Prior knowledge:
The complex is a heterotrimer. Chain A is of the alpha+beta class. Chain A contains 8 helices and 20 strands.
Amino acid sequence: xxxxxxxxxxxxxxxxxxxxxxxxxxxxxxxxxxxxxxxxxxxxxxxxxxxxxxxxxxxxxxxxxxxxxxxxxxxxxxxxxxxxxxxxxxxxxxxxxxxxxxxxxxxxxxxxxxxxxxxxxxxxxxxxxxxxxxxxxxxxxxxxxxxxxxxxxxxxxxxxxxxxxxxxxxxxxxxxxxxxxxxxxxxxxxxxxxxxxxxxxxxxxxxxxxxxxxxxxxxxxxxxxxxxxxxxxxxxxxxxxxxxxxxxxxxxxxxxxxxxxxxxxxxxxxxxxxxxxxxxxxxxxxxxxxxxxxxxxxxxxxxxxxxxxxxxxxxxxxxxxxxxxxxxxxxxxxxxxxxxxxxxxxxxxxxxxxxxx
Amino acid sequence: xxxxxxxxxxxxxxxxxxxxxxxxxxxxxxxxxxxxxxxxxxxxxxxxxxxxxxxxxxxxxxxxxxxxxxxxxxxxxxxxxxxxxxxxxxxxxxxxxxxxxxxxxxxxxxxxxxxxxxxxxxxxxxxxxxxxxxxxxxxxxxxxxxxxxxxxxxxxxxxxxxxxxxxxxxxxxxxxxxxxxxxxxxxxxxxxxxxxxxxxxxxxxxxxxxxxxxxxxxxxxxxxxxxxxxxxxxxxxxxxxxxxxxxxxxxxxxxxxxxxxxxxxxxxxxxxxxxxxxxxxxxxxxxxxxxxxxxxxx
Amino acid sequence: xxxxxxxxxxxxxxxxxxxxxxxxxxxxxxxxxxxxxxxxxxxxxxxxxxxxxxxxxxxxxxxxxxxxxxxxxxxxxxxxxxxxxxxxxxxxxxxxxxxxxxxxxxxxxxxxxxxxxxxxxxxxxxxxxxxxxxxxxxxxxxxxxxxxxxxxxxxxxxxxxxxxxxxxxxxxxxxxxxxxxxxxxxxxxxxxxxxxxxxxxxxxxxxxxxxxxxxxxxxxxxxxxxxxxxxxxxxxxxxxxxxxxxxxxxxxxxxxxxxxxxxxxxxxxxxxxxxxxxxxxxxxxxxxxxxxxxxxxxxxxxxxxxxxxxxxxxxxxxxxxx
Lengths: 357, 298, 322
């Protein structure tokens, strides 16, 4: 298992600067997830680490060696692609061993590696089959197997589960997590699916427009988002946002928005607040509780039953707020309800800079 | 492991991109380009030289004195077997042959493709399969019977006759093109039209045909090029008064007695190739699309 | 075993005519009308297929068993025409030429076309211009091509003369008047014309290959040439077969180029079956012999094309069925 260090990376396509001055340190044995919407640069970053894209500036170190200009095959990496990229006319066994064969590895060693990986991924009965004869999930396992036989220091995953249906995706996700637990290899994983990111990662890197928005363990990124983008990107349903002002008073700080005043003194302030500030208050649906003693009043607009919980949409001052209610539902559509906000679980962002306060 | 080494080591240089392999690729491609362009160059150059220059000089040499005389001769007074009116007669003959031989096969191909892909009448697939096999039948097998059939209906050696023959021989490709194209149009569109009350011809004329512009362009390019360049069918079926340009060209060059006027020959060759080459250079991607579409049989 | 069961099942079904009649009788008048209209629209297709394709083949077949000369006769002579055909030296020579020409033409076109496609695929500059240059010969007629190459290969005024003038007085390139070498000149001219087509088709195939396979190969450390040989070529086999079939059909049809370039000469050295047949149909007025020749040509095509089409359809079907 190797570590990966990226220092002031710049990647330019013609006039378009996709990644600018990016720094990232991936620890050994970590499962790092690059999360972000389409076009944020996460795939570009992964491909740069792999050596499939030339960088315009900066350094990439893998396992302590400068690999900025090394060929992909010399970087001691393995990669799994979204479309599996299996060689269609070769059997599973040949797909996994082809690269090793080209390198001139002794047959016995190739055999050993292929057998070991096949066992790990339950591919033994499929070794003689061609990719066309496999299901989507099996193909993905073969793709992972092909990367694993290289016994590399770092494994790169480029949205490997995107082409699978929901059920298979969940199954393979769990298998990947187990794999990481058993192998303890360094893995860098790209996805736009936040569920994958939250469940698989030891750390999440949220990216947007070629820049890193936040790096942290899943719980931190979820509970304490660094800026509006991260706050809005993670969580389903998305975080509720209320625009307003915070006013420092004598011994308390108040958040004021149309029809809503909240004492936000217990909030974890980063810096002491001097003056009134235009802010955005964010609160996750699970922290917006509907109960009879709630501070504020709203009307139930829409209810989405999700099986083990309900998402209740409230109409409040012209805006739609969502609340997650687990267990049996006591309200109906068009009911007038009261709700409260858990002041310790809110996030406050400067409206101008969009940064967390 | 990571922090310290970053500051100390200088970055490695970007690998020099012009490797020998790359040079080899360009060398091969340029040599090939020369091979392909050489005949065109020679054609052009020979057609503007005087006969003296040709006799003395070198086929590769640039013309010392450019003359358009050969072109005029080729167009107006070259001997095409019977008459010596130049190849312009052949040009107009070819035009008269090509236009109906493009429009009619396209219409029929579209109709066939439409019926085959949307209506699927019983037994139509058998017909289609035989039609596809028919594309492989050497024309000589069909030659004599077709001559007899056309003679019987009085169309042998006539313009309608050659057009009919072209329709027959282009039906497989045209039908295939349109059938494949219509197969890529969602069936839902057709079903919606039927629910709206459309009948066979109404749906065809008002919905499908207007949607077929891309494939019509491709079919037209293929058909115009193919019919213009045809030799054997024109030779047999067109009749002395309607000989297409390709046949007359061959007559000009290979059946002259006496001194061969190479410059006139080359001028005539270029004139004959002008129409399809122009279409090729203008249409670019459409031409390639036509080749690819026509090659996918079944 | 499965196939026999299926065959039995179709035998025991009510006949197709019965089902058709039943369908017709149960349809409402409007539906019936619609079915008839679509059938009517296919009349040109049906008549072409039945008369022009099937009909002519059967007719030629029939003539080949008679002793028709200038006019068709009904006198049945069995295999006599075919025997006479294969006793004819010119016919045998034309077959020999066709075989030699066919092998060289197909091989040269496939190799040259493939190399051109591969090299263009290497992300070269001026790709569009190069493609235009390689494909324009295909837009010319075979007659025009034959005439240009005839001029170029003319020993007195063409390449041989030019090179001699440039200072190599012993240079010879007179294949076009050499009985043993003339067939190669036709190969050169037609390969020049058709390689562009092969390139265009193979390039389209190459472009259809998933970009990620290339990436995976780069990470596996597989050298580019090896990727083409071990991964790309096998993936392209349906396209390759299509190309081969197209080329082979062109080989069998070769007529225009020979007529314009060498007129079958010198003497009969570059005679090809298509020309032999045409001459006996019209010039030498021996319809039966010509028909026999054309049937032999047809059989050659079927024998060589059918297996390839079956192989290709099976492989594409297998891929579709996943």
